[in-house]
Specification:
By secondary structure, this protein is α+β, with helices and mostly antiparallel strands. The chain has 13 helices and 15 strands. α7 runs antiparallel to α12.
C-alpha cells in the first residue's frame, strides 16, 4: 500500500479531488509524487498484488493488499487468494471521473423503465456491490501521409441529355489519429466494451501505479494485432468523410466504394504505435447457478451496459392483465369466424416456435463465444481464409445429415413458398366443387403442419448443441397440437366446439412455448464465464 507521510495510513486515489487522499488525517497528494521503493526496480514493470478467484480462476491486480469479499467476474462470495507479482506497466491511463454514487445513480436510471427486471438486481445491497476496475485497452496511433488521387464527377443537363464530366481530384494528405481503442482483455466481452465506448482520449495521462490504489485492474492478454485492421478502417472512413467536406471537393461527386479503396491504398494507413492504456469501468456481477449477468458503467462518462434478466412471473402477470382489455376490444369491434381463429392460432404457434429456434441458435453462439474475437483469439481459433488475422470462429466443419446443414431460413422459406404457390390454385379449384375444397384444405393445412413440424425437428437437433438446455417438451406438444388442428381444419366439422377445442390446445401450447422463451431469454441475458473453461494446471486458482 501507499503510506501517508504524515500518519502512515493508507493513501487511496480520490475521484472527486483527483488526488491521493488519506482517510485518517485528510492529507491530499499528487499521484505522481507518491512512489514505492519497489516501483523503481524496473522501469517497464511495477509491483502489484494479484487476486485470484478459487472458483473461476479470474484474476485482478491492484497496488493495494486489501482482501476482497467477492469475485468481480463470477460473483462468488469468497475471500480471494493473493500473491505479489510484477505487472507490465501501461503507457497511459484515464483516472476515474465518476464516483461510485454517480455510477449507482446511472444504473438506477437505466433500469427505471425496465418493469420486468428481477428484484435481486433492484436490491440496494446488490447495487452497492459496484467495484472500480481499470480495463486494459489497445489505443492505436495512426498516420496517413502522402499524395491521394480520387475520381470525381460533375453532371449537368442540357435539353434531353445529361452530360457527366470526370475528374481526377488530387492533393496531399497529412492525417494523424489518436484514441481508436479496443479492449485488450479476453475476459471483458466485446459487446460490453463496445457499448461503453467511446472514451475521450484527450483525458489520457501518464500511468503511475498510484492511480490503482483503491481500485482493481484486469490484465491484457490479447495482442494489439487483432484489432489493428479495424482501427485502420475507422481511420480511413473518417479521412474519407473529411475529404468529402473539403470546399475544393464539394462540387464533385466522390462518395463511392472505389474511392474508399483508393484512399486505403494510396497514402496508406501506418501504425505509429499501439499504446497499452487503462480505462475506468465500474463493474458488478450477479450470479445464478453457472451463469452470470454483468453490469458495467463507463467510469469517465457514466454510460451503462447491462445484462438484464427478466422476472418470468412478473412478465406473465403483466401479460395476463394486458390480455383483458385486448380481449374486450376484439369482442366489441371484431367478429372472427372459428375457422379463421384456428388459422390465426396456428400462425401464433409457428411464430413462437421460430422464436424458440432462433434463441437456441443465439445461445449456442453466446456460449461458444463465436461473436467475441478476443476470446477466440486467446483460444487460438482462427477463421478459415483469414490467416490468423481479423475475425475468428471455431475450427472444423459441422458434420451431420443434410437436414442439419440446411439453415432455418431455407426450411421456413420453402414452406412459405409452397403455401404461396398452392394457395391461388387451391382457391380457383375450390370454387368448382366441394371435393376440391377439401383438397385445398388438405394442401394448406398439410403444408402448415409440415412447416411447423419441420421447425420442431430442426429445433430438437439444434438442442443437441446445448447440454444445459432442458429437453424441449414444447416441441412434442407443438407437433401434436398442429396435427390436431390440421385434422380439424381439413375435416371442417359443423360444430364450432371442435374449432374452439383446437384453439384451446394451441393456446396452451403457445403458453408453454412462451415459458421456454422466457427461460431462454434469461439464458441470453446471462453468460458463461471464460474463466470457467479453465481446466486444471493452475495452482493459484
Amino acid at each position: 500500500m501507499y503510506e501517508c507521510p504524515n500518519c502512515g495510513g493508507n493513501l487511496k486515489f480520490d475521484i472527486v479531488s483527483q488526488q491521493m487522499a488519506c482517510a485518517f488525517c485528510g492529507t491530499h497528494l499528487d499521484p505522481y509524487t507518491v512512489k514505492k521503493d519497489t516501483d523503481a526496480v524496473e522501469e517497464q514493470c511495477f509491483e502489484a498484488t494479484v487476486f485470484t478467484c478459487p472458483q473461476c480462476g479470474g484474476e485482478l491486480f491492484s497496488s493495494d493488499s486489501d482482501a476482497t469479499s467477492f469475485c468481480s467476474f463470477c460473483g462468488a462470495a469468497t475471500i480471494l487468494s493473493s500473491r505479489i507479482a510484477n505487472e507490465k506497466r501501461p503507457d497511459f491511463i484515464i483516472p476515474f471521473k465518476k464516483t461510485k454514487e454517480d455510477c449507482k445513480n446511472a444504473y438506477r436510471q437505466a433500469i427505471r423503465k425496465n418493469f420486468f427486471v428481477t428484484k435481486e438486481m433492484r436490491d440496494p445491497k446488490f447495487i452497492d456491490g459496484f467495484r472500480g476496475i481499470y480495463m486494459p485497452y489497445w489505443s492505436y496511433q495512426l498516420t496517413q501521409r502522402g499524395e491521394i488521387k480520387l475520381a470525381g464527377e460533375k453532371s449537368k443537363r442540357k435539353g434531353d441529355y445529361i452530360y457527366t464530366d470526370h475528374y481526377d481530384l488530387t492533393g496531399d494528405m497529412d492525417a494523424y489519429y489518436l484514441g481508436y481503442s479496443f479492449d485488450a482483455s479476453s475476459s471483458f466481452y466485446d459487446n460490453i466494451s463496445e457499448t461503453l465506448a467511446p472514451y475521450d482520449a484527450k483525458e489520457l495521462t501518464q500511468f503511475t501505479p498510484a492511480f490503482l490504489s483503491g481500485f482493481y485492474a484486469d490484465t491484457a492478454d490479447v495482442a494489439p494485432e487483432l484489432y489493428l485492421q479495424d482501427a485502420k478502417e475507422l481511420a480511413e472512413e473518417s479521412s474519407f468523410d473529411e475529404i468529402c467536406k473539403e470546399k475544393e471537393f464539394k462540387g464533385y461527386s466522390v462518395s463511392d466504394s472505389k474511392n474508399k479503396s483508393k484512399l486505403s491504398n494510396q497514402p496508406g494507413t501506418k501504425l505509429r504505435k499501439a499504446d497499452h492504456v487503462m480505462y475506468p469501468v465500474w463493474f458488478m456481477s450477479w450470479r445464478k447457478g453457472e451463469r452470470v449477468a454483468y453490469v458495467a458503467v463507463n467510469g469517465q462518462t457514466g454510460k451503462v451496459a447491462a445484462d438484464i434478466p427478466m422476472d418470468p412471473m412478473r412478465f406473465i402477470i403483466f401479460a395476463m392483465i394486458l390480455a383483458i382489455p385486448i380481449f374486450v376490444m376484439l369482442n366489441l369491434f371484431f367478429t372472427i369466424k372459428p375457422t379463421l381463429l384456428l388459422g390465426i392460432s396456428a400462425l401464433l404457434l409457428l411464430i413462437s416456435t421460430l422464436i424458440y429456434n432462433f434463441q437456441l441458435r443465439a445461445i449456442h453462439r453466446r456460449d461458444k463465444n463465436l461473436d467475441d474475437r478476443g476470446i477466440l483469439w486467446k483460444n487460438k481459433m482462427p477463421e478459415e481464409g483469414t490467416g490468423g488475422k481479423g475475425k475468428f470462429a471455431l475450427r472444423g466443419k459441422k458434420k451431420g445429415k443434410l437436414f442439419e446443414k440446411l439453415p432455418l431460413a431455407v426450411i421456413i422459406g420453402g414452406g412459405v413458398g409452397c403455401v404461396m404457390a398452392v394457395t391461388p390454385i387451391t382457391i380457383i379449384v375450390s370454387l368448382a366443387t366441394s371435393f376440391t375444397r377439401m383438397i385445398g384444405r388438405m394442401v394448406i393445412w398439410g403444408v402448415a403442419a409440415a412447416v411447423i413440424i419441420g421447425c420442431c425437428i430442426f429445433g430438437i437437433k439444434e438442442r443437441q448443441n446445448h447440454k444445459d438446455v432442458r429437453f424441449p417438451v414444447c416441441y412434442i406438444v407443438t407437433m401434436a397440437a398442429i396435427i390436431a388442428a390440421a385434422f380439424i381444419g381439413i375435416l371442417k366439422p359443423v360444430s364450432d366446439l371442435y374449432y374452439y377445442a383446437g384453439v384451446f390446445v394451441i393456446s396452451i401450447t403457445v403458453l408453454l412455448n412462451l415459458m421456454d422463451v422466457l427461460h431462454n431469454y434469461n439464458k441470453l441475458a446471462m453468460r458463461r464465464l471464460p474463466q470457467f473453461d479453465k481446466k486444471g494446471g493452475d495452482d493459484r486458482a
